[in-house]
Amino acid sequence: MVRIVMAQLNLWVGDVAGNTTRLIDATREAHERFAPDLVVFPELALTGYPPEDLLWRPGLRTRVEEAFERLAHEILPVPVLFGYPEYAGKDIYNAACVIEGGRITANYRKHRLPNYSVFDEKRYFQPGNAPCVFTCAGLPVGITICEDIWGPEPAALAAQAGAKLLLNINASPFHLNKGVERSQELAHRATETGLPILYVNLMGGQDELVFDGESLVCDASGKIVYRAPAFTEGLYAVDFSADGQPQRSDEVAEPLGLEASVYKALVQGVRDYVDRQRFRGVVLGLSGGIDSALTLAIAVDALGPARVMAVLMPSRYTADMSVDDAMAQARTMGVEAVVLPIERPQAVFKETLAPIFQGLPEDVTEENLQARIRGVLLMAISNKTGRMVLTTGNKSEMAVGYSTLYGDMVGGFAPLKDVSKMLVYRLSHYRNLLAPVIPQRVLDRPPSAELRPDQKDSDSLPPYEVLDAILELYVEQDLPMSEIVRRGFDEATVRQIGRMVKHAEYKRRQAPPGVKITRRAFGRDRRYPICSGY
Asked: Are residues 220 and 100 both part of a single domain?
């Protein structure tokens, strides 16, 4: 029997010394708990993923070299396989090595370098072209890295070189339904090669990306025989026969449903971003609306109530029920809540601007002024208390520019940046199933920015059911307007939405980062010119 431990860890980009310590500690813990023959860590485990232009810093190369010196002197009790950047002259490879007895006994260079969506590995790395098969307790094992498993060639080369088991180390970021896609690809490679696959994935948040872990093992038929829980650090041992066949296990974690997986991704993303930016906590504007209600729930679940502050900033247009519902949620979640009415500062601003505004009718300017006053208050609290401001806008609003620069867009992180309005409702209902924290009236009321009398979002936008459906086709799938109209949507509405998406690009460039949960997030994924004659 061959026992391999999958080390599903939350590693920090750039913290080479800290990541190395995690690797050493995890190896020793695995040895004590499981007595394995090998411990396998994720892709680029030494540097974290994605290190981006840090790879070009001479200091990072030095730290990687120091990590190898440390690993050589530590003499770990178990062989380890982990990912690292291999510097070879002026070239850099996304590599994986096996260290046993203080020395490198096998080394592999990633073949397929992804250069789409959030990935730009061709900017940094050179591709490898040779298989790597090493012996683990008598079992021939082939190494592949992440994208290598999404095509047939690297796995086939390993099989031809005599591998009886494939190891695939990953930094595979989460998006909706990603787990299903991974399982399908692993099944394809397993059936093509006739080899079982052990798949180890990174866990944790890195800027806008979240890695869900969900490390797994599939047999030669592609059936999953072991799955580690998503969004959970841990060491997971799997046994294989002498010919590489995985032993059946009862520890097959159930895949998370859509709402559960997205919610956990948002919580993980907020926690790691705030902690790694070394903020004491967060502050957010709590309006009594659905977006801020969900953002508050995510923040408390990520950081705990003691690190979250809610600020209510009512104007003359704010309904009493909005204040009541916001305070009710804050009390339910044990969060400090303060009320800062904006009527007086708004009057001072209007008085100051009166000579310029004289004779001009009130319009969106006065509405935006309210949002910007609120932004000033939140940023002042942030500066004074050391709490990061969380913005509360969603992807639907961000797409069409239904937001105010230097107002409700002010902040350090936007948890709902990639969450459509309709998904906001689904996630809110899901969170209330865990424990009822969002008042029912917040879920039932028509959405409104409450910046003028009796305002509703539907005054400016199509119903969110329609808007989100159009945005799915236009933004996520890149379909032309003519095709969207052909699918049954009103042409005038489609063209209006297209114009709004294009015009709002300059706003999105100034928006804070937020957790990516769809295939096509604004920012790292969807990168369009601000000025375009297209």
From this structure: yes
On whether residue 287 sits in a domain, the answer given is yes
My answer on whether 158 and 203 are in the same domain is: yes
Does 417 participate in catalysis according to the annotation? no
With b for 16 or more beta-carbon neighbours within 10 A and e for fewer, the 335-360 pattern comes to: bebeebebeebbeebeeeeeeeeeee
**Selected catalytic residue, list 110, 264, 417, 516:** 110
pLDDT one-digit tens code per residue, 482-529: 999 999 999 999 999 999 999 999 999 999 999 999 988 888 778 888
pTM of the model: 0.93
- Residue 328 belongs to a domain with what CATH number? 3.40.50.620
SS3 92: strand
Can you give the residue range of the structural domain that contains 372? 261-458
Residue ranges for the chain with pLDDT beneath 70:
250, 450
Q: Given this model, what pLDDT does residue 447 score?
A: 80
Residue 315 falls inside a structural domain: yes
d(CA 520, CA 151): 22
Q: Is residue 514 part of a domain?
A: no
H and E: helices and strands count for the chain: 16, 18
* φ, ψ for residue 338, nearest 5 deg: -125, 150
For residue 90, indicate whether it is catalytic: no
In sign, the C-alpha dihedral spanning 245, 246, 248, 253 is negative
For the segment 239-255, what is each residue's pLDDT rounded down to a tens digit?
999 888 998 776 788 88
Shared domain check, 303 and 220: no
Q: Is 181 a catalytic residue?
A: no
Which of the following is catalytic: 97, 132, 136, 146?
146
